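Field log, afternoon session.

UNIT: design team B
ACTIVITY: writing a sequence onto a fixed backbone
BACKBONE:
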């Protein structure tokens, strides 16, 4: 049963030293109880308390890590059923499937795409995360794993086989980059217990159906296997969707341990059309898949899936922000225009993109508005004339330009007079309301005389 903050506080050393980056033990205990801090962050807590608190405050869906370094992928760690209750923690892993008997050109193409496709959106780098290698005869799992690690070093690896010896050899070939070893069933569960102990890898459990999965997962847990990814065996969209919902609800609401692991789903085995796979994948990303495996990765299907992930897995309680600073865009000098806006990242990327597109070198001042957009920040008292003036004076922009002209967002036209009073040496110019009008505005801009 989950512990309250006060119960956790009783087990803390109560030094109030702040070494956990939280000023007091009470505040730390409250955060641990809310799942917002890890008990390990306190260096003084006893091992006994760590075990008790860690167990009680562990997320109902276990966090599992596959791979290492740049290739590490984290799944699970989820604590809620609906995003608005708190947030979703770890993005669904997007995996591309390679069969060991596939022709060489096809394998090379998939590895190249898995390595090359990377997109930047609102300052976030997005890419697919895993390569699944299926043992179909032909090349060995070990050789194929080495080839993937060489060609796509940022990808975590899933090895799929019924043959425990092949999986073991594959895991050894991966070294520290520990793969997910998929294929434990009710028939071979004992061999997978030994495999998990020998390799220290995460185990993928495949059920014939939900009941069979629960039975097998229970057996593995009882034998000491801690890190697992689960597959109910459903190979239709409806089946996988329903099973994912049941698994999430059972783990989060009922604390049902055998289903308290990230799920793995296989759109690649549900149809033979990549676009349809992507559509199935998009549903499973929205409804709780820990990993989805596709038969191929192409830019036109990958990009929309990554965007969907970006939307679903951002924290709804924390706006995306950029740091308060002066941002030089396309090499400005002492005569370049100076603009100011808020630090909501969408605003920053739209405004900076338009300035860049205008090809007019400029200084963009970003004021910390706690992630609120221009009008909201102004209405909340975080983007008023006094605060803007204080920021302009301390920002260092005075040393970077000869002129004293500040371009403010068109939506802040009403504070022009106040700002002129706060910044008497500056000319305040009202910029456009819409970022899309900035290029034309900047091309016409001349410093005020
Ligand atoms: Fe308290 Fe530990 Fe945090 Fe220090 S590091 S304030 S002792 S919880």
């Amino acid at each position: 049963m989950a512990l309250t903050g006060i119960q956790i506080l009783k087990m803390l050393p109560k030094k109030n030293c702040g070494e956990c980056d939280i000023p007091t033990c009470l505040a730390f205990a409250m955060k641990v109880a809310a799942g917002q801090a890890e008990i390990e962050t306190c260096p003084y807590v006893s091992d006994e308390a760590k075990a008790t608190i860690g167990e009680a405050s562990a997320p109902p869906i276990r966090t599992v890590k596959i791979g290492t370094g740049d290739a590490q992928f984290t799944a699970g760690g989820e604590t809620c059923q609906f995003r608005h209750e708190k947030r979703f923690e770890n993005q669904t892993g997007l995996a591309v499937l390679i069969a060991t008997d596939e022709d060489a050109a096809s394998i090379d193409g998939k590895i190249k795409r898995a390595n090359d496709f990377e997109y930047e959106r609102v300052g976030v780098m997005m890419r697919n995360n895993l390569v699944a290698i299926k043992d179909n005869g032909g090349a060995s799992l070990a050789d194929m794993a080495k080839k993937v690690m060489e060609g796509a070093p940022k990808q975590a690896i899933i090895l799929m086989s019924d043959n425990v010896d092949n999986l073991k050899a594959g895991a050894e070939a991966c070294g520290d980059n520990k793969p997910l070893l998929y294929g434990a069933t009710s028939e071979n569960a004992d061999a997978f217990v030994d495999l998990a102990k020998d390799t220290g890898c995460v185990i993928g459990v495949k059920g014939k159906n939900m009941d069979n999965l629960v039975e097998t997962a229970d057996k593995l847990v009882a034998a000491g296997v801690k890190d697992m990814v689960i597959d109910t065996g459903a190979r239709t969209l409806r089946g996988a969707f329903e099973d994912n919902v049941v698994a999430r609800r059972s783990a989060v609401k009922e604390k049902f341990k055998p289903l308290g692991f990230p799920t793995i789903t296989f759109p690649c085995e549900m149809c033979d059309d990549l676009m349809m796979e992507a559509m199935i994948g998009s549903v499973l990303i929205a409804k709780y898949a820990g990993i989805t495996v596709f038969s191929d990765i192409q830019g036109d299907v990958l990009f929309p899936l990554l965007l969907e992930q970006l939307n679903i897995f951002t924290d709804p309680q924390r706006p995306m922000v950029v740091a308060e600073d002066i941002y030089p865009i396309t090499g400005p000098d002492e005569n370049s225009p100076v603009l100011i806006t808020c630090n909501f990242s969408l605003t920053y990327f739209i405004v900076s993109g338009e300035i860049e597109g205008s090809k007019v070198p400029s200084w963009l001042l970003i004021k910390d508005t706690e992630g609120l957009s221009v009008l909201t920040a102004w209405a909340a008292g975080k983007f008023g004339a006094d605060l803007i003036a204080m920021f302009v004076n301390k920002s260092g922009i005075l040393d970077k330009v000869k002129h004293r002209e500040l371009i403010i967002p068109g939506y802040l036209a009403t504070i022009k007079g106040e700002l002129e009073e706060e910044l008497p040496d500056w000319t305040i110019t009202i910029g456009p309301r819409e970022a899309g009008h900035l290029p034309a505005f900047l091309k016409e801009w001349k410093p005020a005389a």
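LOG NOTE: The pocket of iron/sulfur cluster is lined by residues 12-13, 15-20, 22, 24-25, 28, 42, 44 (CB under 6 Å).
NEXT ACTIVITY: expression trials, pending approval
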